[in-house]
Specification:
The protein is α/β, with parallel strands linked by helices and 799 residues long. It folds into 4 domains: 46 residues, no CATH class; 215 residues, no CATH class; 168 residues; 231 residues, P-loop containing nucleotide triphosphate hydrolases (Rossmann fold, 3-Layer(aba) Sandwich). The protein is 49% helix and 16% strand. The chain has 23 helices and 21 strands. α5 packs across α8, α9 crosses α13 and α10 runs antiparallel to α11. It is elongated, with a radius of gyration of 53 Å. Its EC number is 2.7.10.2. It comes from Filimonas effusa.
């Protein structure tokens, strides 16, 4: 119910768009909505909280295991000790690695797949619990081992095992076939070829208790566990990698994480071992060739001495050999080094695809060359690790290939410089040894030949000993190979699940429980295209709302305002009467009020009758004109005769006063003019000169004239009659009038098509704590005209 002051406020106060007023309205609506929805809010909150609690109880607890690994990084500090420096000094094992690369290796699919295969994580074992199935990993009675030939791509499947520990037998259903066997047998199931192996817990297993075994694909399991792993570098200033793994069991999470770290360390050692193996293979190949050449030379010496019966050389030759030994030694070293350089050059030219590491330890005499080789091997190792997670066509791999090719060209260029240096040294040595060669020519032919054999033997022997030494060094370094990382903290779980969080789940349930009713109301309101609150009107038009009329509980009686009646609705009409008097203050003579709407069924006839009654109760002489000529209802509701306006217009003789009637239930100063028979041309009748005469005479006899006309949104009657009106009351029925029909009011106001237009909100049914006004349904009439002038509606209008 709206008081007089409220109605006056709607008249005199323009529509305000200030932020404070909008905020106040929003808050008021929200509070009103909450009060009206509290039973639903309570029920929704209880239901959602119950569902949240059930979700919490049925969710599997998740545990987190944490570990830390220190990675040796050439860009950061490391405490790996002097052993690494010793191995790197041999030029064989490049221990330094980039911590970011190692982080990617921990996250790699290859590493996780090794863990899945080793622990057979794609096979899970469950027993039935009170609410859900519980996984048993460490205490399973049997192990369903996927055999290697079927392990690479097992098919996803679920099996129900029935075990008999006493008889050591089992039964299983597979492809609608019951398979029985003894524990320890090998079976061919749809998941592949498997072996059923006993575990310690089998002895305590209850007979015929169901054991559910899920076998997932290797690919899916690997991707699932990769998602459960979190690897990060917490501090960029140090080379420490923090690892965390989430699983349904604290012991299982620790086991998986520790296995992952061990697989990483093993892969790191294997990388270094491959580099050492490359060097050993190269040396072994050279040893075979050098040993054969040395054996051939020694055999030739033995044959020469036997054939020539040469047991010893002369004293002069001995002295000559002793004097030239130093130069021979230098020459041998130069020849050995040149031979190795040639082999390395051949190796690099053949290694176009960058598939193998370079054995740098064979050229220890040139530090610049060794540095280039170390850079080359470092990039080679980085490329191998990157290929674990990327393809050869990946841009990062292609960048490394380009760097490796550039380094390979630099190595070949460096080898060319080394060869030229060796050859220059050898030429110098030949000059210095030329005088000894002259002296050798003076030695008898047999001794000279023997001296040549001896020189060749010395060269090959020196080369053979050098290769043996390097092979031994490589073997020692390989046996001492250590990983580029070490464990700081082994995997450890707190034993307390981090998920699900009970408080958070219940809080979400409570929030949803509160939000759902509001959401339903909002969605319902969003899709509701009917007027439900004053804001729906104020957002679409500047026309003020003059009054708000409630729902008429007595639907059988159209007259709600009578003498000594103090109901809510009668007070609302009295408030409307006051507002009209304020609007028409200063106007002399008869006041004419035009009442219309946008369509039928909005309660304009109900409003017309009761407004006329309210004015009559105030002592005013009132004439109510039933000018809805197409579908009149007032005369029927007030039990009046149908003869009226059309009879007066058509006859051309009768006085209009002859057709005025007084309702039995109304005051003596309340007259009603019925519409009369329904004409085929209502608009034309209203435009006749006799109508002008009628209104001029009528205004001289009454204080107020109330014109109940046809809906302005359907026909033009109201606009024709507006020439006789002082103000227009446009009726909007709550939850009945379409919102887009409010735009019609704004158009009429903008074009000044109707005089002094104001809106009356009709049929407001106040609901306790309801949304907005809590409007309900009320009254209505219907239209169903003929003669080609019908509205096309057939709604009943209440009130």
């Amino acid at each position: 119910m709206q008081s007089n002051q409220s109605a006056q406020y709607n008249i005199n106060t323009p529509i305000q768009d200030g932020e404070q007023q909008e905020d106040a309205v929003i808050i008021q609506k929200f509070i009103s909505m909450a009060l009206g929805l509290w039973p639903w809010l309570l029920l929704s909150a209880i239901v959602c909280l119950a569902m949240a609690f059930l979700y919490y109880k049925s969710s599997t607890p998740m545990y987190k295991a944490n570990a830390s690994v220190l990675v040796q990084d050439d860009k950061k500090g490391s405490d790996m000790g002097a052993n690494v420096d010793i191995l790197q000094g041999l030029g064989l094992l490049l221990g330094k690695s980039n911590v970011d690369n190692e982080l990617e290796i921990f996250k790699s699919r290859t590493l996780m797949e090794q863990v899945v295969k080793e622990l057979q994580l794609n096979v899970k074992y469950f027993i039935s619990g009170k609410v859900k199935k519980k996984e048993i990993f460490f205490y399973r009675p049997i192990t369903l081992k996927l055999l290697e030939e079927s392990y690479t791509s097992p098919k996803a499947a679920t099996f129900e095992f029935k075990l008999d520990p006493e008889k050591n037998t089992f039964s299983i259903e597979d492809n609608d076939e019951i398979i029985k066997g003894k524990i320890g047998d090998t079976l061919q199931l749809k998941a592949g070829k498997v072996a059923v192996l006993p575990e310690k817990s089998l002895a305590t297993w209850v007979k015929d208790e169901s054991l559910t075994i899920n076998v997932n694909t290797l690919d899916m399991t690997t991707r699932t566990y990769m998602g459960a792993l979190d690897a990060s570098i917490p501090n960029k200033l140090v080379s420490v990698i923090d690892l965390a793994f989430n699983e349904t069991s604290p012991e299982k999470s620790e086991l998986i994480l520790n296995t992952l770290i061990k697989a990483y360390l093993k892969a790191s050692v294997d990388d270094k071992s491959r580099m050492a193996d490359s060097t050993v293979k190269f040396i072994d190949e050279r040893l075979v060739l050098v040993f054969k050449e040395l054996s051939d030379i020694e055999g030739s010496i033995e044959k020469f001495k036997t054939a020539n019966k040469l047991t010893d050389v002369s004293e002069q030759t001995k002295i000559l050999l002793e004097n030239s030994s130093e130069y021979l030694k230098l020459q041998n070293e130069q020849e050995v080094e040149l031979s190795i350089v040639n082999e390395l050059e051949k190796f690099l030219k053949d290694n176009i695809t960058n598939a193998r590491a370079v054995p740098a330890s064979l050229v220890m005499q040139d530090p610049n060359f060794i540095q280039l080789v170390q850079q080359y091997n470092k990039l080679q190792l980085e490329r191998e690790r990157m290929l674990m997670t990327q393809t050869a066509a990946h841009p990062a791999v292609l960048t490394l290939d380009k760097q490796l090719n550039n380094l390979r060209l630099e190595l070949l260029s460096s080898i060319g410089s080394i060869k030229r240096g060796i050859e220059t040294g050898m030429r110098e040595l030949k000059k210095k040894t030329s005088r000894f060669e002259t002296m050798v020519r003076e030695v008898p032919s047999k001794e000279r030949t023997f001296l040549d054999y001896s020189r060749q033997q010395a060269i090959k022997q020196e080369l053979y000993l050098f290769l043996l030494k390097k092979r031994e060094e490589t073997a020692i370094s390989k046996s001492s190979t250590i990983a580029t990382a070490r464990i700081i903290d082994e995997a450890k779980s707190s034993g307390v699940p981090f998920a699900p969080k009970k408080t958070a789940i219940l809080l979400v349930g409570l929030v949803l429980g509160i939000a759902i009713p509001f959401g339903v109301v909002y969605v319902k309101s969003f899709f509701n295209n009917r007027v439900s609150s004053l804001s729906d009107i104020s957002n679409l038009t500047r026309v003020p709302v003059l009054a708000e009329i409630g729902h008429n509980e007595n639907e059988d009686n159209i007259l709600a305002v009578t003498l000594n009646d103090r109901t809510v609705i009668s007070e609302q009409f009295r408030s409307l009467r006051t507002n009209i008097n304020f609007l028409l203050a200063g106007s002399d003579g008869c006041k004419t009020i035009l009442i219309t709407s946008s369509m039928s069924g909005e309660g304009k006839s109900f409003l017309s009758v009761n407004l006329a009654s309210a004015l009559a109760l105030a002592g005013k002489k009132v004439a109510l004109l039933e000018f809805d000529l197409r579908r009149p209802k007032i005369s029927e509701k007030l039990n009046l005769m149908r003869n009226g306006f059309t009879n007066y217009i058509v006859s051309g003789r009768d006085d209009w006063k002859h057709f005025m009637q007084k309702p039995d239930i109304a005051q003596a100063n309340f007259d009603v003019l019925s519409s009369g028979p329904i004409p085929p041309n209502p608009a034309e009748l209203l435009m006749l000169p006799r109508t002008i005469t009628f209104f001029n005479e009528l205004k001289s006899s009454y204080d107020f004239i109330i014109i109940d006309t046809a809906p302005v949104g359907l026909v033009t009657d109201a606009q024709i009659l507006s020439a006789y009106a002082d103000i227009t009351l446009f009726v909007v029925r709550h939850q009945y009038t379409h919102k887009n029909q409010i735009k019609l009011v704004e158009q009429l106001h903008s074009k000044r098509a109707l005089p002094g237009i104001n809106i009356i909100v009709n049929d407001i049914k106040l609901k306790k704590g309801g949304y907005g006004y809590g409007y309900g349904y009320g009254y209505g009439y219907g239209y169903g005209y003929g003669y080609g002038y019908g509205y096309g509606y057939d709604e009943k209008e209440k009130g």
